[in-house]
Amino acid sequence: MKNTILEMKNSLEGLSSRIEDAEEWIRELGGRLEEITQAKQKKEKRIRQNENSLRELWDNIKHANIRIIGVPEGEERDKGAEILFEEIIEENFPNLRKETDIQVQEAQRDPNKRSPKRSTPRHIIIKMSKIKEKILKAARERPQVTYKGKPIRLSGDFSAKTLQARREWHNVFITC
Fold first, then answer.
1. Is domain 64-175 classified as CATH 3.30.70.1820?
2. Region Disordered: what ranges (predicted)?
């Protein structure tokens, strides 16, 4: 009987020791899990910061660009996109053309393929050396900007993420 009690006592101590080891192992795993979670959160924060930095850098690169929306495909083939832009300025803002020296560095169609779901033409991107703000301000003040009598839009050229953020804020302002 003493032997059985002693065996049970030893067995109980062994089980107790195993339980303590298991609890220690669980504590260690909990610590590791917390470290991994913190590292993941830091990584996600760094990714968001990098995405924002990239968006800001991209917007700075595109800062001098004007986007022309709504000009039919092929209009720029005959005379070039720079001449087309000058015609738009002459047609809509003759005083601006006389007051300032508009310098176009480069002009081209947006290289993105047209979506078969949308019938709108590709945008024309105009890279300016200066006075972009004057042109955009004049376009905002004018009720309608046209090219050969057809309505078009002039806007700043921003990254897709910035445009999406502006759309989201626009919806917020509308609901307020």
1. yes
2. 102-121
